[in-house]
Every structure is written in C-alpha cells, then in structure tokens.
Amino acid sequence: MTAAIQVEQLAHRYGQRFIYQDLSFSVPEGKVVALLGKNGVGKTTLIRLLMGFLRPSAGQCQVLGEPSHALSPRTRARIGLLFEGHLAYDFMTIAQIERFYRPFYRRWRRELYYDLVDRLGLSPDHKIGDMSCGQRSQVVLGLIFAQDPDLMILDDYSMGLDAGYRRLFLDYLRRFLDEGGKTVFVTSHVVQDMESLVDEVIFLQRGGAVKQLPLADFRRQFRCFGFQVEGDAPPQADGLIENVDLHGREPVLYSFAAPERLAAHLATHWPQVRLGDEQALTLEDAFIGLTGKY
Ligand SMILES: Nc1ncnc2c1ncn2[C@@H]1O[C@H](COP(=O)(O)OP(=O)(O)OP(=O)(O)O)[C@@H](O)[C@H]1O
C-alpha cells in the first residue's frame, strides 16, 4: 500500500533538547490516522516538519511522495492543512478570503465553503478579524473542504468549536471520506471523537517512542484490570504491564496481554499481586491508561 506520509528515523531538537531521536511511522493512502499524545510531546512540531516549515535535525519525511522540505506547489495544493494561527489574513472578509484562495486550487468547491460559513449567520462582508475563535475555525475548515484535498492534515481541529460545530465538522469529514481515496492525518485532544472516525492510531510518547496500530486492535487488545496486593509492593510497568494507576479509587493495571498470559506473568514476576476483574474502558480511559495522566 502506498504511503501518503512516510517518516523515517526522524530526529528533531530545539536547541539542545531533542523532541524525538528516531521516529518512524507511515500513514497509508486512503486511511484516517490519528496522532495522539499528551501536551508537549511534539505533535505540532511534527506537522511543521511534514509541511517543511522546519527542517529535521536528522532522518526524513515524505509527503505524497515528495521530501517534506521540498514540497512542490502542485503537491502543496493537494494538502488541506489546518494549523494553529493558519488564518493569517484576518483583514479580509468572508467573501474576500474565498476569492483569494480560489485560484490556487484546481478543484475548488466554492459551495462547500459557503455551506459551512453560511451557518454562522454572518454577512459575506464580515471581517475575519472581527470573529470569535470558533467562527474563525469554521472559516478555515470551509477553506480546507473547498480545496478538495487528497490529504488533510488537521492539527487539533476542535480549536474553539462548540460541541455542535464539532459534530458538524465530523459530519463533513465523513462525507469527504465517503468520496474515497482521501487520507486524513489528525491530531486531537478530543479523544472520544476519534472512535467513529479513525482507522489507525499512533501514540506518541514523550521522548519520541511511538506505537501504531489499527484502532480496532487497540480497543480489543488493550485491557485494564483491578488488582490486590499482599504487602506494600504494587507492580510496576514492565515488558507486559504498560501502566499502573488508580481508576477512581481502585488500583488498576493496563496491558495488551490476554488475561491468562498476564496472570502467568504476575505469578512469576509479581507473586504478591492478585489479578481482579477486567474494567470497561472508554477510548479516553484507554488513551490515559496507555500514556498516563500527566
Ligand atoms: N520554537 C520552539 N523552540 C523551543 N521549544 C519549542 C518550540 N516549539 C515547541 N517547543 C517545545 O517542543 C515541545 C513540543 O511542542 P509541540 O508544540 O510540538 O507539542 P504538542 O504535542 O503539539 O503539544 P500540545 O498538545 O500542547 O499542542 C514542547 O516541549 C515545546 O515547549
């Protein structure tokens, strides 16, 4: 399968501080892939690298078959980018910005822009600089859908959108995906939105460790169990135990291992621990279980 994004042995540092040292993953064409990670792990930095706004300290990224630091205008026009501070032309009006963007894109779909933006109930000569944060987001999203891109890169699309507009955006995104052949690479802190949208997840940890797997596999394999300890030596994360934490008041441990394998592992390495019941997890619980609360 062709990769829309291919990242190989990527390293990036700000000053002396490495954000990642050896990051590799790929986003297959036609898939929706979410990059999830806690604040400050380097999600936005990665998008800057993918778009060629930053040059990596080492390693490489390819986007739609071109090196990210040398993307041609033609390839850039195939990428719909939602990025913090992206809407720089806030002196323009709703109508002016649409006219400004239109000539850059061969498949421009003006009706999609106005379909989203008309819902704001503002006149076409309303200035972008005089809009609320959520309204501006709506304008940016309208511009991105109108581009009809082959690849959408969305950095925290929920920025400022209220629950209704977030749903509206997700409905648009699903319709966009129904057209087929589209790839979406998304970062979000609204983990529950990912459940019905995403094919694969990439968990990025501080220091650059990554785990990529189909969302369905993550939901099926990643489990949470209560446990009891004899004495005062609780288990610690190890090769099989991903994390140990409190779920409410109950101590729990998280693992990708099946219960029998985990019980055998505990009997050998943590004999003072008795495995309790499996707990149901929302996607957000599972995300926190894997990455930790803070
Ligand atoms: N220009 C910069 N100079 C120095 N450090 C930076 C710079 N930009 C970002 N950082 C640091 O790099 C790390 C990664 O930042 P980045 O914005 O990529 O994280 P993020 O995963 O997108 O975070 P969030 O989820 O909070 O948006 C952070 O520790 C941040 O402080």
From TrEMBL:
> Superkingdom of the source?
Bacteria
Which residue numbers delimit the ABC transporter domain? 5-231
Output this protein's name.
Answer: Methyltransferase
The protein's matches in InterPro entries, at most eight in alphabetical order, are given as: AAA+_ATPase (IPR003593), ABC_transporter-like_ATP-bd (IPR003439), P-loop_NTPase (IPR027417)
Q: Enumerate the Pfam families for this protein.
A: ABC_tran
Q: Which molecular function GO terms apply here? A: ATP binding; ATP hydrolysis activity; methyltransferase activity
Q: Which PROSITE patterns would you find in this protein's record?
A: ABC_TRANSPORTER_2
Question: Per the UniProt entry, what are the Gene Ontology biological process annotations, in alphabetical order?
Answer: methylation
Record key words, sorted: ATP-binding, Methyltransferase, Nucleotide-binding, Transferase
